[in-house]
């Protein structure tokens, strides 16, 4: 399949977007006087903006392209899982936000030291940092890999546009720059999804009604067999359970989301942020799945437009480049870049917050504020460069399986991290040693299940979380807590 010429107008639209994003970083650079500004924005972020930022952070370019591909080749079953991010909000509102706001934490994992000990803090913080460096590499790599077959842009140039420029504006603007670029990128993602869907509707003979009829006749909405229970397949009950725990991990134990709880001026604004995120989650994914259904209808009517042996994983960028007008295609590709950069910039700032708070400030003598800010910015660059170099390695070596395996092992720490926060907040008798036993048991359990069973991967997070809580609770009487009753009252429900 020959690459399509990207065209001067599309290049112009893409570069205009990238220039605008850079200018946001430049604008907020002058406000970054301390780590309070760099990681917390000194509480200057309105709730609605923080909410859009949460949405953009959790939606990467891979999601932007893979959801339409999923709906195109399969069905809409995974849409149900998206709404679990809304289902967990009452728990987050009632229990977690007050904790993080009251303790005024820079890193979420500071709580784990206050509640347990420094071992739990370092375990969770280092797991988060390693996972997100891998995540940066994989997002850049898969985005470039998906775009390379369709546009005549050198892979290194794609990596530069996505990764290096993202490092620069995150370095300059701190969390404030990250959040306001997230707002731009979140709006672009949402508008792009709606615009693509509307445009395809106008190109399908019979319009929206025919899209519905073709999708329904192929049983591509919610097939009845997908509602049955399965231990190995991603059916509806498994998706509900798996996404529920994945959402708990994101909203209660992942620094990139938890950090948004402390950038607003009050708990009320923080709750507004999550309500805004819930509204976007309720609406926008429907259009992503709708795009997949519309593409299915369009290429069912025009099968000659698809090359032979076409990899349907790239169906969205293929349609954008081959069928959309010049200029419009450039804006849509810019939205794909935006999806990458919103996730990467959040990861970079969160990695920096974790290292600065959990490692650099935690150990050794007191450091001056200027030096702490210098280290914070340096870590942003170092983490970004590591991710970019890893993505370049993956592009040219084609050894994605090795990296995916590594990333999978690090990602398995998400369950134990979620379990640690649950154990600490809800089980008063739990202590540092029982938490350690719970984490060890959790990691062993998940690795065993992954290696020796066919259990669906959605259960990994469930097992990882529950084993920490159950084992931590059962072994608590074997160890003595070092915390006084008054401190426990402040750190538990």
UniProtKB/TrEMBL annotation:
<dbReference type="InterPro" id="IPR038377">
    <property type="entry name" value="Na/Glc_symporter_sf"/>
</dbReference>
<feature type="transmembrane region" description="Helical">
    <location>
        <begin position="79"/>
        <end position="101"/>
    </location>
</feature>
<dbReference type="Pfam" id="PF00474">
    <property type="entry name" value="SSF"/>
</dbReference>
<keyword id="KW-0915">Sodium</keyword>
<feature type="transmembrane region" description="Helical">
    <location>
        <begin position="48"/>
        <end position="67"/>
    </location>
</feature>
<feature type="transmembrane region" description="Helical">
    <location>
        <begin position="122"/>
        <end position="144"/>
    </location>
</feature>
<feature type="transmembrane region" description="Helical">
    <location>
        <begin position="6"/>
        <end position="28"/>
    </location>
</feature>
<feature type="transmembrane region" description="Helical">
    <location>
        <begin position="372"/>
        <end position="396"/>
    </location>
</feature>
<feature type="transmembrane region" description="Helical">
    <location>
        <begin position="156"/>
        <end position="175"/>
    </location>
</feature>
<keyword id="KW-1133">Transmembrane helix</keyword>
<keyword id="KW-0472">Membrane</keyword>
<dbReference type="InterPro" id="IPR051163">
    <property type="entry name" value="Sodium:Solute_Symporter_SSF"/>
</dbReference>
<keyword id="KW-0739">Sodium transport</keyword>
<comment type="similarity">
    <text>Belongs to the sodium:solute symporter (SSF) (TC 2.A.21) family.</text>
</comment>
<keyword id="KW-0406">Ion transport</keyword>
<feature type="transmembrane region" description="Helical">
    <location>
        <begin position="434"/>
        <end position="452"/>
    </location>
</feature>
<feature type="transmembrane region" description="Helical">
    <location>
        <begin position="187"/>
        <end position="208"/>
    </location>
</feature>
<feature type="transmembrane region" description="Helical">
    <location>
        <begin position="319"/>
        <end position="339"/>
    </location>
</feature>
<keyword id="KW-1003">Cell membrane</keyword>
<dbReference type="InterPro" id="IPR001734">
    <property type="entry name" value="Na/solute_symporter"/>
</dbReference>
<keyword id="KW-0812">Transmembrane</keyword>
<protein>
    <submittedName>
        <fullName>Sodium:solute symporter</fullName>
    </submittedName>
</protein>
<feature type="transmembrane region" description="Helical">
    <location>
        <begin position="280"/>
        <end position="299"/>
    </location>
</feature>
<feature type="transmembrane region" description="Helical">
    <location>
        <begin position="408"/>
        <end position="427"/>
    </location>
</feature>
<keyword id="KW-0813">Transport</keyword>
<feature type="transmembrane region" description="Helical">
    <location>
        <begin position="228"/>
        <end position="246"/>
    </location>
</feature>
<feature type="transmembrane region" description="Helical">
    <location>
        <begin position="458"/>
        <end position="479"/>
    </location>
</feature>
């Amino acid at each position: 399949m020959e690459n399509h010429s990207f065209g001067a107008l599309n290049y112009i639209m893409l570069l205009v977007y990238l220039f605008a994003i850079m200018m946001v970083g430049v604008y907020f650079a002058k406000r970054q006087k301390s780590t309070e500004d760099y990681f917390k924005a000194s509480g200057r972020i309105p709730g609605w903006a923080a909410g859009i930022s949460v949405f953009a952070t959790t939606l990467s370019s891979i999601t932007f392209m893979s959801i339409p591909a999923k709906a195109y080749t399969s069905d809409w079953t995974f849409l149900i899982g998206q709404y679990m991010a809304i289902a967990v909000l009452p728990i987050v509102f009632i229990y977690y936000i007050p904790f993080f706001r009251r303790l005024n934490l820079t890193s979420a994992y500071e709580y784990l030291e206050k509640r347990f000990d420094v071992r739990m803090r370092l375990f969770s913080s280092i797991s988060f940092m390693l996972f997100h460096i891998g995540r940066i590499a994989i997002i850049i790599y898969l985005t470039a890999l998906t775009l390379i077959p369709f546009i005549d842009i050198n892979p290194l140039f794609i990596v530069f546009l996505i990764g290096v420029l993202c490092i620069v504006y995150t370095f300059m603007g701190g969390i404030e720059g990250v959040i306001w670029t997230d707002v731009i990128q979140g709006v672009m993602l949402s508008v792009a999804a709606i615009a693509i869907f509307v445009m395809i509707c106008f190109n399908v003979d019979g319009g929206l009604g025919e899209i519905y009829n073709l999708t329904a006749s192929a049983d591509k909405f919610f097939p009845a067999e997908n509602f049955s229970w399965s231990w190995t397949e991603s059916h509806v009950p498994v998706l509900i359970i798996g996404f529920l725990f994945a959402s708990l991990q994101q909203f209660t134990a992942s620094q990139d989301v938890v950090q948004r709880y402390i950038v607003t001026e009050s708990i009320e604004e923080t709750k507004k942020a999550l309500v805004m995120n819930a509204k976007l989650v309720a609406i926008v994914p429907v259009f992503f799945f709708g795009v997949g259904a519309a593409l299915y209808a369009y290429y069912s009517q025009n099968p000659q437009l698809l090359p032979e042996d076409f990899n349907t994983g790239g169906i969205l960028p293929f349609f954008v480049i081959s069928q959309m007008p010049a200029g419009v295609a450039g804006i849509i590709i810019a939205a794909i870049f935006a999806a990458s950069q919103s996730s990467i910039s959040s990861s970079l700032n969160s990695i920096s917050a974790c290292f600065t708070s959990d490692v650099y400030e935690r150990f050794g003598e007191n450091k001056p504020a200027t030096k702490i800010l210098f280290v914070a910015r340096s870590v942003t660059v170092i983490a970004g460069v590591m991710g970019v170099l890893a993505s370049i390695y993956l592009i040219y070596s084609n050894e994605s399986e090795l990296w995916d395996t590594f990333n999978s092992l690090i990602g398995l720490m998400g369950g134990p991290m979620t379990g640690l926060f649950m154990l600490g907040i809800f089980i008063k008798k739990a202590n540092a040693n029982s938490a350690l036993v719970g984490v060890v048991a959790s990691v062993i359990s998940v690795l065993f299940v992954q290696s020796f069973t066919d259990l669906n991967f959605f259960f990994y997070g469930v097992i990882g979380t529950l084993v920490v809580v159950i084992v931590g609770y059962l072994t608590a009487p074997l160890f003595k807590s070092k915390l006084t009753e008054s401190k426990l009252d402040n750190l538990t429900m």
